[in-house]
Amino acid sequence: MKFYETIVIGSGPAGMVGATILGQHGVKTLLLDENDFIGGQLVKQTHKFFGDHAHYASLRGFEIAQKLQDGISSNSNVEVENAATVMGIYPNNTVTYIQNGKKCKAYGKKLLITTGAMEKQLPFVNSDLPGVYGAGAIQTLMNEYGIMPGSRFMIIGSGNIGLILAYQLIQAGAKVRAIVEALGKIGGYAVHANKIKRLGVPILLNHTIVKAIGDKSVSGAVIAEIDDKFKPITGTERELVVDTIAISVGLTPLTELSEQAGCKVEFIPELGGYVPIRNERMKTTNPDVFIAGDLASIEEATTAMIEGKIASLEMVQELTGKDLEKEIENEITILALFRSGPKSVKIRSGLEKMGIKNLAISKPRINEPKEDIVGKLRAVLECDEEIPCNSCEVSCPFGAIYIGENLNSTPVLDPDKCTGCGTCVNACPGLAIFMLKEDVENRMALVGIPYELLPLPVKGQKMWAMNKNGDYVCDVTVERVVKYPNKTHLVYAKIPIEFSQSVRHFSFIKKESPIICRCEEVTLDEIENTIDSGITDFEELKRLTRVTMGPCGGKNCKLVVLGILSRKTGVSISNLSQGTSRPPVKPVEFSAFLKCGDDK
Amino acid sequence: MISNASVVIIGGGIIGTSIAFNLAKLGVKDISVFEKSYISSGSTGRCGGGIRQQWTSPMNVRLAMRSVELFRRFREDIGMDIEYHEGGYLLLAYSDEEMGEFESNVKMQNQEGLSVQLVSPGEIKEKFPFMNLERVVGGTWCPSDSHANPQIANIAYAIAIKRMGVDLNTHTAVDGIDIQNGEIVGVQTDKGYVKTNTVINAAGGFSHEVGLMANMDIPTHSERHQILVTESINHVLEPMVISFKKNYYVRQTMHGSFVMGQSDKKPAQGNDLGHSVEFLEEMAPKMVHDFPFMTHLHIVRQWSGAYNISPDAQPIIDTAESISRYIFAVGFSGHGFMLAPAAGEAVAEMVVYGRSKTMDVSNLNMRRFKRQIKSEKNVV
Amino acid sequence: MKGRIKAHPILEFKREKRVKFYFEDREIEAYEGETVAAALHAAGIRVLRYTSHRNRPAGLFCAIGKCSSCLMKINGVPNVRSCMTKVSDGMKVRRQKEKGDVL
């Protein structure tokens, strides 16, 4: 048996930060991890992280992991054992692990357990078929080994993990047919959802999977709408042709080792399920055992890192007698700030159930927008949800973006100060900032869009401009591509000024023609061919192809059709006739006209 | 929970539920069983599930043989499949001295009508070629020894007695036994009071504590025994194999997993149900040595249970001298599961007829400890 | 798009040393550092075993050694987590049927 002052179990963000701080304070520490690398699930994350710069915001998960790994390997007080599977914690803080097929024992005066979480199951018919994976498994295959387990995916659950997975799949070249979500609203951050919506991935709310189809492996999925009791509504079933189904319906803490270490565990669903009871400083009911990260409550890497810091500082204080009160209190305040937004309501109420009071701190707010300056090259911030992130504010070299004291507050741009440099577009983890410069005279606008897909467009390339829902808007020619070392590049193209608030993605021109008019199912090809045949009047085009003549009255496609006509004929949209608007604006039943409702 | 019980049984383990089953079968009404936790939460649900008739004391042999008869009918009588399997028991000897003891045991067991035979290493090797019999000089083989799933058996009894009208109360702890002038008048539980004149102590690991409730100092104590289970694999090992010398028992369940255990050198006393890493450290080398195929088998769980031990490692089934109608069926010393069907039958008969009819268990009385104690030897 | 990702906008995959292993006697090429499950997925193989009770096909589920979905017979040893076992030259991998044999 080997003896240490502390043993840290698990080398995710919480464990890495904890081990680093313990080592920095001269505490002899053993860091154990089951994998043959340290970093936990962070190494599989290709997206940039939210948060503040003290906690590596704007860096990608694997880059954060690298930085934390460097901090540990340069620390002589931290001994790392990889490929070490802890199989049990026995009385007297005896940690038993298996390494190279051999049992090893280690004693630690104090333990920091950061075993993280695993995915919740979702039972449905054939959910055991090969081709049904936990979302994390796909991330492991795809981002760790560079192996795609399928070509056409469906994702169950629209929390941040499901949304991020969809984006990562598209980046790696796969097709995501749909995300189904049982609730009536998207679970994750709006910016993550927007990132995939504009790539054309539908998020089907109030939907569930009924069953997976397949003999030896998944070849499809039956989905259905559900009622308010989450029961599938008969008659709404439909089949999606997919070969892979990802389940991402949440995580639940891995508490076994903490239980064996004598920590009292309670069921607090707001925190993810069974969680060890602990105090504000991450100390469990066993005074020698501390926890941090997803084991303590299902949250994010940033909160895991802060918790790892708080736990390890308190451990140092107890082991060495150093006075670290100020640092600890400071970290507790930072953590409270992170959790002060509307997305942390559940966590806050879960912590209160455990008897941890939430600090009274400045509340996040929706900041008032400043007056816009049309015609100036500037950033457009589409970040309207209070989430804990201030990377745009910090990244701006000119102080043009304001968030304020609480990093959950929404950012506002001061167009006066903005120079159009694009630094914030590159930094934003949510890819929620765009560049815009209108040319009012020529009725055109230059729009710049963050781009993380392959292949990267080149100057002069003809592409399709897509709106926030991934629908075709107009054809564009790429004006400029600005490459950045962090691989979030910026692609600029000119579009008709009317579309400046809708175009948010450039897509490569596909062989199959996009549907322009959803009601009448008219494609771009049909419209262009009709125009090419000499029909250059909108009214005629409409009558011939039936575009804009469906039940929606052209609300969805009229502007797009006018754009096509404008591009083809060289006449600006404002100079084209858009026809006459006639009632009813929305479909109305005959029966409504059988009786008069004027006289009450 | 009824307010007037003809009999109160303390303990919902295999012994308590078997007694209740046999009482109900004899027509006794208003039986109450109190279990402070859930069915099979105590020693029953933690045991190895072996059913052995090869004992060194004739009484144990008889009780076990009767139990095997009843286990064979379990499905018909009680209504559930409990994975009962007659795969036999193989006991291993490592010295001429041990073999000599086995010989005299077999002689006695044969006299009791049990079919057991001595086997040579060659015969063992022929039956079980995968075993490493290094230093084994022989053994005994009883094909009608068996094993079953103790949890299911306990739950099967519980389901059966509920069906038969027994008042079974789980998560109900007995706090005290109300005795006036040497007569039982009732039992106090944490959920209420029940009037009764008869109490049966079938409290397993807590038999001593329940004895104290009636001012009886029952000579039993509990000690922790550890056990482990592996992943399941296709069937390899038919019998339960025991080595007293090397201190282990092992069997493969019908589900395919291997269950095995030993007696710790210094077992934790009382009802400490923790576990130690030393247990695995001690078990692993000897099991892999004797069963080389286990080298890559995965251990999936370890746990422990209490042996409720009597001075001679045989059960105590008796009525108290000082208090009328206080009966105890305790001190099964790690073998309660396998003896439960016969013990339950005997105790029920004691309640109804004043003595056990089917099989005389009177020599399992408490008075025997006043004489010289002759201990059951073959205990792991 | 199944199989090894050739180009990725963010990540670079280090694939250096090739190894050969056998799946159901079929030779499969993989890269050192890949797990058995990953290497089989790269070769388009997703059915890793047939379950013992219902004889249903089963594959990878969690990929981090927390579930038991991907158990395979590797070098003769049944019930090995193929998601946690790295491929090596000459390794013999089989789909597990039933509970696996130890003899």
How would you describe this protein?
- The complex is a heterotrimer of chains A (600), B (380) and C (103).
- By secondary structure, chain A is an alpha/beta fold.
- Chain A has 14 helices and 31 strands.
- In chain A, strands 1, 2, 3, 4, 5, 6 and 20 form a 7-stranded mixed β-sheet that branches.
- The model of chain A has no long low-confidence stretch (mean pLDDT 93).
- In chain B, 28% of the residues lie in helices and 25% in strands.
- In chain B, a hairpin with a 4-residue loop joins strand 15 (248-252) and strand 16.
- Chain B has helices spanning 14-25, 58-72, 74-78, 96-111, 121-127, 150-163, 207-212, 277-290, 336-353; strands at residues 7-10, 31-34, 50-51, 89-93, 117-119, 138-142, 146-147, 167-169, 174-180, 183-189, 192-195, 199-201, 221-232, 240-243, 248-252, 257-262, 299-309, 316-319, 326-330.
- Chain C is mostly beta strands.
- Chain C contains 1 helix and 8 strands.
- Chain C has one helix at 36-42, and strands at residues 3-4, 18-23, 26-31, 49-50, 57-58, 71-74, 77-81, 92-94.
- Chain C has a 5-stranded mixed β-sheet, covered by helices on one side. A two-stranded antiparallel sheet of chain C has the order 4-5.
- Chain C starts with a strand and ends in a 9-residue tail after the last strand.
- The chains are: A alpha/beta (600), B alpha/beta (380), C mainly beta (103).
- Chains in contact: A-B, A-C, B-C.
- The interface between A and C is large, with 44 and 38 residues.
